[in-house]
Design goal:
homotetramer, disordered C terminus, 4-stranded antiparallel beta sheet, alpha+beta, 144 residues
């Protein structure tokens, strides 16, 4: 199951609204459950370097069905997943990427946000994801 | 000078309207005058393989300030630009990518469309570009 | 909708059987409808260079929902899609890749075969795809 | 000397059996002694992001003839192999990849598993490797 284009647009609109409320300029990416890009928006004055980070955050959250920051906690030096960022053409494992889960607990895609502090990136991503679904995963089985 | 996010949204909306009129399912990418992604939309049921092609068409049109199909005419075997597709992490040189030029003749970005025949891709790209500017370049100098 | 692992195994077994009947040594890849690898098999004595070709054929067939050879007819010099192989990290556009379509006309994945002549590659891919579905696409809408 | 396709199939079947016993959903890759992919399986509901990690674990274990986790101990900050993950198009150096060694002490390939905790990944990889050989290397010389 995949996020639809209409849902992706709705999520981006909600993320932009939250970004404006927080006075930030964000790049926002939505991928479907196969981690393929569905929609993308770069607000005016957002960092050019955030384009790829937003996309990679969305892909990372989808690849493993969890918030990017959760992977980052495991990928620190001496952590169990140290170096996982070298896989899949580059992961981004700090906060700002969240899975998007539908009402039946199915992963339908993910959102990635980059452009400010990781705290703000996370807040904006959460606003986007929750405009169309949940960002918390139920217990297994939940995958697409 | 760069296309604004509001202009990018307007171009994508116009492109989607034209795609719907032609009964096609498109991927549509807008880049700014630095060839960096500004906005992207994948309509429902558009080919997954068209994501990258739409983005590359937009970048290609911006890199050289001309329609992608015009480059493709020069990159055929025995042509002066044979093999140019190997540059810049991959160009797409068949129709569907157009520069976006403002009223002062300045290149402000480009649009790339993929998802149907190259004729349809071109028609949809043209509708998108012309919603916010021109797709024909004036004589030099025109660059940003 | 995605091909299941059990279906992927069944398709590979059928492809191997056909390869043995034709006296060939093949690499066989199955991807799901997001073009992500589901299963892969390299028969003994198959070319090492065919690993990547089989995977790229499967991805190519899935990306555009059509036989790889059909794309190759359009991507010849002076053809409308000349140079499309530069997209998506490299396409393979000669025969040997086929979409896998279920009984409802939904694209659920694709198969890619490499290791012999393109005629043999196609025959083996067809045997694999048809063990679990159709390789001919209905009229639109058919996409996942 | 290389692992045969029949052995690769046997190793994957044993790994899947162990994954089912542990209630996990795994990606499992087998490479030959040249680090070239021989067979691959993605169980239903396994993470899409684990495809590349499983393959990279198998390649990493084969490239250096040792368990991936052993390399990871050397690649930590201030360690002698810090940053080795940047080589060979990306290594994965946490547990889940193991060499496969035959009865004569010859490296014939490697297995990589990804999809759960690194402890589970290792257990499943070990079950796969030991279905067809040893995963402990004898003293040098042992290479193919």
């Amino acid at each position: 199951m995949h996020v639809t284009f209409e849902e992706a647009q709705k999520a981006i609109a909600a993320a932009i609204k939250k970004a404006e409320e927080t006075g930030t300029q964000m790049c926002i990416a939505i991928v479907d459950s196969g981690s393929n890009l569905k929609a993308f928006a770069r607000m005016n004055d957002a960092w050019v370097g955030s384009i790829d980070i937003a996309v990679k955050k969305a892909k990372t959250a989808c690849y493993f069905g969890m918030p990017t920051g959760q992977i980052g906690q495991l990928s620190q030096p001496a952590g169990p997943l140290y170096g996982i960022e070298h896989s899949n053409d580059g992961l981004i494992t700090f906060p700002g990427g969240l899975p998007i889960v539908n009402q039946d607990g199915i992963l339908v895609g993910a959102i990635g946000v980059s452009g400010s502090s990781v705290e703000n990136d996370h807040i904006v991503a959460k606003a986007g994801a929750e405009a169309i679904g949940l960002s918390d995963l139920p217990a297994h089985p939940w995958r697409t």
